[in-house]
Amino acid sequence: MAFRPCNVSWAPQEAECGTLAVPENPAQPGGRSLQLSILRLRASGTAPATGAVLYLPGGPGQAARDAASWMSQDFAGLRGEWDLVFVDPRGTGESAPLDCELFESGDPQSYLGDYFPLAGVERCRRELEPRADLTRYTSTYAADDLEAVRSALGSPKVTLVAGSYGTRTAIAYLRRYSAQVHAAVLHGVVPPFMSTPLPFARDTEDALSAWIAACAADKECAAATPALRADITALIARLDSAPVQAPLTLPDGKTTTVRFSRDLFGQTVRGLLYSPNRAVLIPALVRRAREGDFAPLAKLAYESRKDFASMGEGAFFSQTCTEDVWRIREEDVPGATAGTLLGDGRVRQQLRACKHWPRGELPTDFDAPLKESAPVLLVTGQWDPATPPRWAERAVGILPGAKSVTVPFAGHGLQESALQCVMQLMTGFIRQPSAKALDTSCLAKVQREPFKLTLDP
Fold first, then answer.
1. Hey, what long-range contacts does 431-434 have (CB within 8 A, 24 or more apart)?
2. Is residue 361's pLDDT more than 90?
3. Based on the domain organization, do 189 and 205 belong to the same domain?
4. pLDDT for 183-224, tens place per residue?
5. Counting Cβ atoms within 10 Å, is residue 290 exposed (0-12), middle (13-18) or buried (19+)?
6. Average pLDDT in the 21-43 region?
7. Domain of 220?
8. Phi, psi torsion values for 156, nearest 5 degrees
C-alpha cells in the first residue's frame, strides 16, 4: 500500500493518500474487488509512531476522509505519538461509492417530500446493482476491510475512534479482531441489537422534552416562548390537517414556494436536536411558525435533505436494511411512535424502502455479547435524540469491562463548553486504557448552550 501527497483542497496539507484493493465478497477472492480510499496523517513526533488511530464515520454513508481536518485539530494531543488514519468505508467517499439520486435535483419540493421516496429508492437500486452486490456493504464487511488495512499498514495494534453508526463497525471489529485493538472510543453508540429507526420517535421526544424544560427554567427563553410545548402541539395539529405553503430561497438566490408537512416538521426539529448549538434555535423557530412564518424551518429542512443526499445512499440502505429494519414489525410501529413529534412517517418509509432493497446475511453472533474485548470507552450526550444514554447502558452489557460517560446537555454532537473536556477524556483513555479510574471531573464544568431567541435575517 503506497501513499502519496493528497494534493486536494479538502485534506490537511500534510495528508497522504493511498488505496488498498479488497474483495467485495471475501468468499470469492477472485471476484470483483474494491479500492478502499485511505488518508493518513503521520505522527508529528521524532520517534516512530506508537500506532495508528483509525476513524470510523457514521451515517451510515459518511466518508471518513471528511473528518481529517477537524480530527487533526481536536486530537492534536495524540498527533505526536500516533498516526491518524481515515478509511472511507466500502460504498462511501472514494471507496467504490454507492452514490445515487434519491431526489429530483431540479425540483426543490422533491427534497421536502418523503425522506425515502420510493421511486428514488427503486431508481437507486437499478443504477447500482449492475456494478455492486448490494448485500456486501455492511458493518461486518467493513470490519474485515479495516483489518486488511491494519495488516497492510504493518501496525501490530490499532486504536478505534468511532462515531454514531460507525460504532457498529467498531463493535464488529472488536468481536472479530479484539487482539489487534489497543483501545476503542465509541461516541454515540449504536449497539448491534438496536433496530433503527424504530426507537427514534421516543428518543427524540425525550431530548425535546429536556430542551423544553430547560427553556421553561431559563428566564429569557420562558418570557419569549412561555408555552413552548403547547405551541409545538398546536403546530403538529395544524400540519396534521394540511401542509402549509412556505417560501424557500434557493442557493442561486431564486425564491420558490414549497409545501411544508407535519412529517417534515418532525424530521427538521429532530435534526436540530442533534447539535446543541442548533437545538437552541427551536424556541425562536417555533415562535415564527406559530406566527405563520415557516420560511426558516423550510430553509433548514432543505439544507438538511441536501446534506443527506450527498452521502452514500446505497450504503445507507444496504447497511440499515440488513442490520436493522428487518427486525421491525408493522405492529411495533404504533406503540413506538404514537403521540410523538416525529410520528410514524420515518419508520414506515424506511420499512417500505427496505422491501425494495436486497438484504444481506448477518453472522449468527452479530448482536451477542462479546466473549472478550479490548478496553472500550463509551461517550454519550445526555440529550441525544438518536443514541441517548440508555443505549450506552445496554451496550455495556455486551462489551466486557467497558467504561461509559455521559456528557451533560450534549446531543449527538457536542457543545463548545464540552469539547475540550471530552477530548481530554478520550485522549487520556487512549494513552492509558487499562487505568482503573477515569478522571471525569471536567464534566462538572460543562454548560448548556445558551438559547438563541432571535433568528438571523
1. 431/78, 433/182, 433/183, 433/374, 433/375, 433/377, 434/375
2. yes
3. no
4. 999 999 999 999 999 999 999 999 999 999 999 999 999 999
5. middle
6. 95
7. 200-304
8. -55, -40
